[in-house]
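Lab intake sheet, docking and co-folding queue.

SAMPLE TYPE: protein with bound small molecule
LIGAND NAME: zinc ion
LIGAND FORMAT: SMILES
REQUESTED OUTPUT: full 3D complex as structure tokens
PRIORITY: normal
SUBMITTED BY: R.K., bench team

The fields below were copied directly from the construct record.
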Amino acid sequence: MAHLFKVDRVRLLCSCGVLKPITAIYFCRHCLKLRCGNCVSHEVDTLFCPNCLENMPSTEARLKKNRCANCFDCPSCCHTLSTRATSIQAPSPEDSNKTVARKVYYLACTSCRWTSRDVGLKDQTVATGGWSEQDNEHYKYLQSLLEHYRSVAQQEKLDRERKRFSHRKSAYLSLTDKYSLPSLLGRKSLTPLSPYAPKGDSSQSLDMTASEATAEVEGLPDEIFTEEVVLSSVTDMEQRMASPEWQPEKTSDLYPLHKHILVKRSLRCRHCEHNLSKPEYNPSSIKFKIQLGAFYHVPEVRMIRQVELKSEVETCVQVSLCNPTPHDMTLAFLPFVPEAYTAMQQKVEEPTDGGSLNTSSMVRVVDIPPEKTDLTPSADVALPQGQVILAARDDTAEYDDQDSISSYKDDPLVVAWRRANKVGINLLVTPKANVSRAKVGFVLRYDYTNTVATASESRTVTLNIPVMVDVGTVSE
Ligand SMILES: [Zn+2]
Ligand SMILES: [Zn+2]
Ligand SMILES: [Zn+2]
Ligand SMILES: [Zn+2]
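RESULT FIELD (auto-filled):
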């Protein structure tokens, strides 16, 4: 049965032309359109460590290379390391002939049993911190590379600003801050200066000689052919790549990894710039201040049971519809015309005003042209005619023992059953010849009662949501 509940069997067509399950779609109450991760702005709200849940300002996070200073991951299996305490006998500070018990700490992995003692790291006398950092032999070279790319990025930015200035057009400023440009290059200070700035400020661009590729590779050491490989002493690719600066080849060279920090994001509609999702600031909270998930606003369509489908044979398929809102909905099913939506896929939506938002944490995701979603149905569907009323959500309904007598006059050929805010609808699906899976499409028309208090707009609007349902495999 599990496959029936797989969310991507039923997908909604987002306003940007991408098919997504309802759980991955947002509903903008201001534009009254579906929005997905592909067509919203992503902003970083909070940076935090997933282990100690400590907040970190973005500048600090950048300095620490987006890693927590106090928490470590196991270099062997990437599980979080925990601190273990033990006591050892150490010479007393007063009298070197006596010994006293002292508490020391080491790091251990509860998942694979790796410990910092395995690789000969000295135990620490304090519970947190104190672990020495590994020195990278290429540190100077990497630093000069960073310096170089910073000046390259600075030049690119200057050029872009200059272009902006000459065109006088509010171009879409993709400030992705590639190589962590210092903030003194902010827009305000740059714009009036940039057209007169000398081309290629040579003091900034260090002379770097580009590395050259060579066909000759160093030979393998002789031992590799003679000595037997002990697999447990060699690291695997994942372990090596977990610390890209060192890439240890032997398990004895593994070193605790600083834990990566995570971010909390908020999502913003690119058209009206209202928030679609905004988490609580506190990292330990899993709640949201704003969460306009489509499953709170759009009737949820689900497949009820798997049916046997045969090529070119009409089969009754049941879908259920659930009303998540506290208002009654009138539903209707309209035919799906793929051509009407393929045009939508080509058009990449322009933001209303690219430069108006001045937030440094803003990450405007570059428009990814939606992958060519195949919108052609591989089965015909006979949709129910007329309208169906979908009752409002009632949180007390589940405590009712007996089904309330339905007050709706339903056509038994269309409505298979009705329970609280859910209704079962019969669709007649006829798979086309020579197809392996039957996919049907329809447009769900429903009345949406907008709870945003705007006096100018009418409260109830009729919306059309294109839906594609993967009904299942077709046997011959
Ligand atoms: Zn919007
Ligand atoms: Zn979208
Ligand atoms: Zn931490
Ligand atoms: Zn481990």
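REVIEWER NOTE: The pocket of zinc ion (ligand 1) is lined by residues 28, 30-31, 269, 271-272, 274 (CB under 6 Å).
SIGN-OFF: pending second check by T.M.
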